[in-house]
Amino acid sequence: MANESSNENFPGRSQLTDLGVGCFNAPGYSTTFAKFANLSNAVTVPANATIIHITGQLGVNDEGELVAGPAQQLLQAFLNVEKNLLAAGARHGWKSVYKCVAYHSPDLNEERLQIYAGLIKEFCGSNKPSQTSVTVPTLWLGAYIEITVEAVVG
């Protein structure tokens, strides 16, 4: 497997590698898909790391109401994850995330996947967390997305 800190598939260092997290991809399709989706297929976390688990975040405003439209909900869900990461002590926010699971509503389409991929790149920067996206029958409040993450404090 190729490690992010020593492989041409992962240019430069990231907040994750600076926190001791190893990011890996096997040669072949794993590496090709990892570049496309801005992810790592395998991640190692040091035993002494403080880990943050963020429960599912929806695209809701501070009043708990879903914001209008799929693109706005995706952005708001990312912002809500960021707020909770900062509240828990991850001063680098999304750049401390090593694992992300996104639950999508059943009407997921290519346009929304592209928005999601763009937000991952925007919020994670050079970090490439492991990622899983799942389409589910329904989400709370009829949301388009719910995101859970794991991060390290740094």
Structure summarized in a few sentences:
The chain contains four helices and seven strands, in the order βαβαββαβαββ. With 154 residues, the chain is an alpha+beta fold. Helix 4 links the parallel strand 5 (97-104) and strand 6 (130-135).
The H-level CATH homologous superfamily of the largest domain, spelled out, is RutC-like
Low-confidence stretches: 1-12
- Cα-atom radius of gyration: 15 Å
Q: Which shape, going by the Cα principal axes?
A: globular
Strand content: 15-25%
How many strands, which pairing sense, and closed or not: the largest β-sheet? 4 strands, mixed
Topology, number of strands:
7
Share of residues in helices: 25-40%
Distance between the termini: 25 Å
* Name of the level-1 CATH class of the largest domain: Alpha Beta
Count of DSSP-assigned helices? 4
Mean pLDDT: 88
Q: How many domains would you count in the coordinates?
A: 2
Pfam families: Ribonuc_L-PSP
Protein name: YjgF-like protein
InterPro entries: RutC-like_sf (IPR035959), YjgF/YER057c/UK114 (IPR006175)
Organism: Clonostachys chloroleuca
